[in-house]
Design brief:
The chain has 145 residues and is of the alpha+beta class. Helix content is 17%, strand content 34%.
């Protein structure tokens, strides 16, 4: 199906393995594409924020913050601004934008396993977002991990 996308990164896909409390701190990917993946084992929380100014503000205030309990007041306030907070269960498939602020946290006693690949669909909104990669001014200009 890659031929029906603007770009499908099958060279640098990701696998995340971790125990309870592990995860990825709040960040925006270096390239403003989407991620499609499958969660294979354990339970994991995924939080995403809206694109543009909200994501830029979250990165400015919480860059690489690990949202692990007990949460502070600043982290709780940030989660209230999230566009989605979801629980990934074994077998769940997801599509989310790496071009917005996002974070993950493994919450089960079991080891968690998640795999993904990055892509840019042909949807005009996704193409416009991808083309903002490397912006030095405007709402998409922010520090990327």
């Amino acid at each position: 199906l890659a031929r029906y996308t603007l770009y499908w990164n099958c060279y640098d896909d990701g696998v995340f393995v971790g125990g309870r409390g592990s995860g990825k701190g709040l960040h925006v990917d270096q390239v403003l594409w989407s991620n499609v993946g499958k969660h294979w084992r354990g339970l994991k929380l995924l939080a995403t924020w809206p694109p543009g100014e909200v994501s830029a503000k979250m990165v400015a205030e919480h860059n690489d913050d690990h949202f692990c309990p007990p949460l502070g007041e600043r982290q709780r306030a940030a989660l209230e601004r999230a566009s989605r907070v979801v629980l990934l269960r074994p077998g769940d498939v997801f599509l989310c934008s790496g071009g917005v602020a996002h974070t993950t946290l493994s919450v089960s006693e079991d080891l968690t396993l998640t795999a993904y690949e990055s892509l840019a669909t042909l949807h005009p909104r996704h193409v416009r977002h991808l083309l903002c990669t490397g912006a030095t001014s405007g709402p998409h200009a922010l520090v990327r991990g």
